[in-house]
Amino acid sequence: MVEHARAPHNTFAAPRAVRHVLLVEDHPLFREGLAAAVDLDERFSVVAQAGSGEEALTEAARTAPDLVVMDLGLPGLSGIETSRRLVSAHPGIKIMVMTMSEEDDNLLAAIRAGARGYILKGAPQEEMLSVLDIIGQGGAAFGRHVAERLGGLFAAVGGAPAREAFPMLTAREREILDLLAGGLSYRQIAQRLFVADKTVRNHVGSIFSKLQVHDRAAAIVRARDAGLGSATTGA
Questions:
Q1: Could you read off the pLDDT of 164-195 as tens digits, one per residue?
Q2: Reported pTM
Q3: Boundaries of each HTH luxR-type domain copy (predicted)?
Q4: Among candidates 117, 118, 107, 154, which has minimal Cα distance to 138?
Q5: CA–CA dist 84, 37 (Å, integer)
Q6: Calpha distance 95→110 (Å, rounded)
Q7: Residues 65 and 91: beta-carbon distance below 8 Å
């Protein structure tokens, strides 16, 4: 509850500080539309835009934003890893993930990486700005559809085996991802599973596609966030 105190007649309420925002989104048209929407709100000012994780790190160091709107499906450095690095380098920064991904593992990974909010692209503009404002004030907030399932997710995490993560993967793909997260090379995985190197690489390509990542490092980050790789020993 917000208390409204009466100010003496000879004082004025201090104007609310405008919060500086960094937008991280690899689709220029969507990013420009988002920038226009955020800039129209007097609570915010877009101070920088980035089309990749690497660019986001550079822009954050240059402009010191208060808030970051982060897409997950970035080229190169993933949105999850970018968020983690931003929070580590700038402890006061607050991140709101805005993505097309409705996957539970992405939601949990984003929260573990330090995101204070998570909203789906396509949510009403008012909802997006409200979530951003709450985060800017130091709270945590989620879009309506995300919030509906968040409680159930946290309740299930404690009892769910890590290997049940990524239900879109086949059992063999999860096994290979687990070994990748444990630090094994493609050749070591092939030797461990008694298959050809090419077979492993084919499975890895499918894993990248299903997880919507662009490289091995991003896949490993996703896997470790979900608890994979911790029990793997080298071949």
A1: 567 778 888 888 998 998 889 999 999 988 88
A2: 0.63
A3: 162-227
A4: 117
A5: 26
A6: 9
A7: no
The single-letter code of the amino acid at 97 is V
